[in-house]
Design goal:
By secondary structure, the protein is an all-alpha fold. Helices cover 75% and strands 0% of the residues. Keywords: Membrane, Transmembrane, Transmembrane helix.
């Protein structure tokens, strides 16, 4: 009897391992998610960011530790998780507004102004589609959708560049620098461009070959080189083409012709998988807490129902917040300054200092690390405070 039980356990374990292997992602699937997670509405908002800095300034901008902090690790973890939640929820709010704005403009242009839909009505119509899409529980099942969205995104950007390169004005017709009071808005939008930062660890965790994620020719470096080229080119040529008339998303500046109306629709459709991808991060933070709190067992009907309910609630929250402040450029700037600056600049240098605190490092290297991290921290805090203040002020004035 004991032997039979042992064999049953071994068979069950083998089945679970096989199921996990099937659910893990290939390097190509991970690259598709990485590109989709980083080349979203943010790349279309970069020309608006450049308008707040000027052509020249904007492109130049591109249990260890001290003993007194060791018992505060749980507090630090909670703070980082809270900022991650705020960031990812904020991204999803931006996607709601982006989808609604572009569908409204698309319908208006197609009907020659005869039909002008309300943004809230569009959000209400899109809501059930987003809820169902977020019921997909594994990243590997989203890989095909991400790949299709990337094709739409690249095609749409290619057509946008075609528009940008027509009758391009000389660079000296645009200001090299902008009013210093607008720099905080540039900071917020530019830092928001790190919209895929929260996906890095979850993507690596769900890979079949996690070691292939890093390294010189790894998935991360390959993906981010592509992303960086897209951002630089879109920001530079978008502002050069439209100047201070550039809108919160470059798609809203496109001419009212069938070709560019199709681009709007393509880029809007491409955001749907991105929403599900970004919401995956809050789910991985909140769901384990709910499981522990209510002692939910894996693979039970109640557990599945609770998981789906949590996903629906998160989607509902993002749509309610998006409906409350439907200002795309200001929301992007606020999320970037408040949350992305913390995750991309402030927290990493603090974590590195704590991690290297007890390492055997030469005085010269330690001095370099200390000066470097202090400068990054000051830069991050300045952008955090000024960007958040200016963004909130502009949101209040726009209401």
């Amino acid at each position: 009897m004991t032997v039979e039980k042992f064999q049953q356990k071994q068979q069950k374990r083998a089945a679970e391992e096989e199921e996990r292997d099937v659910s893990l992602m290939s390097n190509t699937a991970t690259l598709m998610h990485l590109l989709k997670g980083n080349v979203g509405p943010a790349v279309l908002a970069i020309p608006s960011a450049v308008a707040n800095a000027g052509l020249l300034v904007a492109e130049k901008a591109f249990l260890v530790g001290p003993k007194c902090l060791q018992n505060k690790a749980h507090i630090a973890k909670a703070i980082v998780n809270i900022f991650l939640l705020m960031t990812q929820i904020g991204f999803c709010c931006v996607y709601c507004i982006f989808i609604a704005d572009n569908i409204r403009d698309f319908v208006k242009n197609v009907t020659h102004g005869d039909v002008i839909l309300n943004v809230d009505t569009i959000m209400l119509a899109v809501y059930p589609i987003i809820v169902v899409l977020n019921f997909i529980r594994r990243l590997s099942h989203l890989a095909i959708a991400s790949a299709a969205a990337n094709i739409l995104q690249v095609t749409g950007l290619a057509i946008i560049f075609y528009n940008l390169f027509i009758d391009l004005p000389p660079t000296w017709t645009r200001p090299a620098t902008a009013d210093i009071t607008r720099l905080p808005l540039f900071f917020g939008t530019a830092i928001y461009a790190f919209e895929g930062i929260g996906l890095i660890l979850p993507l690596q965790k769900d890979m079949k070959e996690p070691a292939a994620f890093i390294g010189f020719g790894g998935v991360l470096n390959t993906g981010m080189v592509i992303v960086g080229c897209f951002y630089f080119a879109t920001g530079f040529f978008g502002f050069l083409k439209y100047g201070d008339d550039v809108k919160g998303s470059i798609t809203l500046n496109l001419p009212c012709t069938p070709l560019y109306e199709t681009v709007q629709l393509m880029l809007t459709i491409a955001v749907f998988p991105l929403y599900a991808l970004q919401l995956y991060v809050p789910i991985t933070i909140i769901w384990p807490f709910i499981q522990r709190k209510f002692n939910l067992q894996e693979s039970s009907l109640i557990t599945t129902a609770a998981d789906l309910c949590m996903r629906a609630v998160l989607v509902t929250i993002t749509f309610m917040l998006a409906a409350a402040v439907p200002k795309l450029d200001l929301i992007i700037s606020l999320i970037g300054a408040l949350c992305s600056s913390s995750l991309a600049l402030i927290f990493p240098v603090i974590i590195e200092m704590c991690t290297l605190w007890q390492e055997d490092i030469s005085k010269k290297r330690w001095a370099f690390i200390y000066i470097k991290n202090t400068l990054i921290l000051l830069f991050g805090l300045t952008g955090f405070l000024t960007g958040t203040y200016v963004s909130i002020s502009n949101i209040i004035h726009s209401l």
